[in-house]
Amino acid sequence: MTTQSHVALVTGANRGIGRAVSARLHALGHRVVVTARTADEAEGVAAELGGGARAAVLDVTDEEAAIRVREQVGPVDIVVNNAGIQLDWGCAPSAVPVSWVGRQLDVNLLGAWRVCQAFLPDMVRRGWGRVVMVSSGTGSFANGLSARTPGYAVSKAALNALTVLLAAETEGTGVLVNAVNPGLVRTRMRPEAERGPDAAAEDIVWAATLPGDGPSGVFLRGRRTIPW
């Protein structure tokens, strides 16, 4: 794990896993850009973190929002694509409203894609960068796609595919792109889960601060590579 201080941007950082990831990165000495859909949410977390933390408004479904944040904060070294929604728990694939599926794809897949397009070129030019996609076991073919939340599962499987594509594109540039399955985490999405956000954040931050010889284009769980 690198100990050098970097600029790290976290999406969906106003609560749950994103907030815990921001806090851990800040505690390690990184300069964190806390992003959320509203200024109040982002600024509240940045104020709690204290010195070196900045806030930015970022709705990942807005086509231009990530570009505006790039213009506001400049290049970053680490991106944690954490923003995500789940709308269709308990829906059958044959009956889920397609509009719900589209909304989940827009946030969970295309949102991460937009953020990467805004910030990845800087990383490549500077010769160092880390991108972490916060994924899910529901989108793992090896684990078995979850039919209980079909649109969400498809969005996370697609996010995994994007991870592989970006890792292949950036191979040999000093940029590492990986996906993390944090497991069932106690958040607004899964309030019954036993694992807390702080534990999940440790694994995500580990992936976000890998050394230069670390893996790229892999699916991680508990700091181990797992099958897609």
UniProtKB/TrEMBL annotation:
One of its GO terms (molecular function) is oxidoreductase activity. The keyword Oxidoreductase applies. Pfam families: adh_short. Keywords: Oxidoreductase. Belongs to the short-chain dehydrogenases/reductases (SDR) family. This is Short-chain dehydrogenase. It comes from Spongiactinospora rosea.
